Amino acid sequence: MNNHTKHIYNPVFRYFFMQDNTKNINTTAATPQKAQPHFPEQVTGMYILAKALKNIGIDTIYGLVGIPITEAAYIAQGQGMRFISFRHEQQAGMAAATHGYLTGKPGVFMTVSSLGFMNGLTATANATVNCYPVIQISGSSVREPIDLEQGTYEGLDQLNVAKPVVKAAYRVNRAEDIPTAVTRAYRAAISGRPGGVYLDITTPALGQILDHDVADALFSQPVDLQPAMIPSAESVDRALQLLASAKKPAIVIGKGAAQARVEDLLKELVEKTGIPFYPMSMAKGVLPDNHPLSAISARSTIMEEADVVMLVGARLNWLLSRGHGKWNKAGKFIQLEINPEEIDSNRHIDAPVVGDMKSSLEAMLAKLGNYKMAMDPAWVTGIQSESKIKNAKFLERLSVPTVPMTHWSALGAAKKVLEANPDVILVNEGANTLDDTRDSIDMFLPRHRIDCATWAIMGMGMGSAIGAAVATGKSVVAIEGDSAFGFSGMDFSTICRFNLPVTVCIFNNGGIYNGIGVPLDKTDDPAPTTLDIHARYDKLGEAFGAQTYYVTTPDEYEKALTEAIASKKPCLIDVQLAADAGKESGHIGYLNPAPLIDITV
Ligand code: ADP
Ligand code: MG
Fold first, then answer.
1. Which residue among 187, 189, 203, 346 is buried most deeply as judged by most CB within 10 Å?
2. How many whole angstroms from 513 Cα to the centroid of ligand 2?
3. Tens digit of pLDDT for each residue in 465-515?
4. Residue 443 and residue 425: Cα distance in Å, rounded?
5. Which domain holds residue 187?
6. Do 187 and 261 lie in a common domain?
């Protein structure tokens, strides 16, 4: 080591770099001036990672720090990025996934090795299933003792654990490969069908030291990060021909359309053709729920009677009975979809249109004038009058101010407040709380409803609420079942720490499905479905400084929710329901096999 070099410890970055110290050395006229040696500033792999993320347009990282990524988070903050720090990695991942869904750019989150990585991987897998663009970056331990199973700190072959459940997975062993890896991860997350990408960066790569100028030369600006994918002209003509020939056509809108931001094109298509549409749960609001062509209340009629159904960013998966069940057996399908492998996955698709949604809808609209629609006007008026009758009945049910509250009487109150605040993003999870909220609260704007989606999982609530608030700056209301809240509840503290405009409403009926489960055996233990009917969740909010409410009537709830949203502060409302409010498995009891014996004896 040259004597003129001194090691500088940076307390924020917590790494050493070397500085040229020759300028502090006394030189006199008697001493001949030597050429100044060059001691460049040096940086670590963590710095390169932060720079690479920033360079590609990432402005927010979610995560939970610890060995070996703590300094990387500090450096990211130092580079002007937000680092939203969580209490559980899974929630950081849910937040990043929601961020990705809402912005169209991959959401990014960081985890520590082994368990932290595994906790986060749950969210990355969920993002992959839901087609949300997300990048999980995890530090991992030193490779050699992992590969030889010699037992090292948090040793786990993370890359191979991740591979089966994510869209793509890459490992980085050298700091100089980090910019390339970030670009590849970005492209994989967002191109074609979006999904979860895992980026494994080993501790040696994170800690590797490079000269600053060498590091800076590693970056370039990637071109066309999300290229358009144009559908073939034949596929567009085939689809239009089939659509035009239908007497009873319908359009099913899925969250792929919401994600592709095609609401204006879809509105034009729906209004020019006059075809009724049915939105999937998270597609509510792509076109407003009160649109005259909304068939949201006529799902069975669409399934049983439509002769041509056009799927727009919706998969024929279990949520649509995989194209079987009630669906008209003679009905034909058009599918607008980016992933060619999705076509025919469950049922024969007569007219696939493979391309990105924007390009596909633009191509269809450009040729729409060439076709004359054969739709029977009675099909639309029939759906409209059926909807009118059903909606009126439904409103009647919601307007009964039952106390102690049921899901319905509580949602009657929430409906008034949320529909008066259409720009609030609604996050929703639970069993009955999910089904009934989805059915009760109309949405008027695209990408304003985020729920447990394709896997129907619990445990996305706090993370998604945080991701939605951070990504959009908008107010968020999370309507949570008491069970669902339990999975992510501790990250309510993250809402408070970052002072986010999020109101969490906990519908407490004291259990999974409800709070009146009876144990099968003679035991003093609670039933497996029983939770805490008398829990005061509002006190939990108090612990972190939130504005809190405990409400027992619809009027109280309406007042509290109005006030909470207006405050734009972290709020928690404990919505006390009756223990017998709610039933098993919501609307899909067939998925939950009944016990062989009568559980009430
Ligand atoms: P839902 O649950 O609302 O029915 P799904 O998640 O099942 O929605 O389906 C969304 C579909 O949208 C996926 O098959 C996905 O590949 C597709 N998709 C996502 N983004 C685009 C896009 N930009 N263009 C076309 N299709 C897309
Ligand atoms: Mg419950």
1. 189
2. 5
3. 999 999 999 999 999 999 999 999 999 999 999 999 999 999 999 999 999
4. 9
5. 42-216
6. no
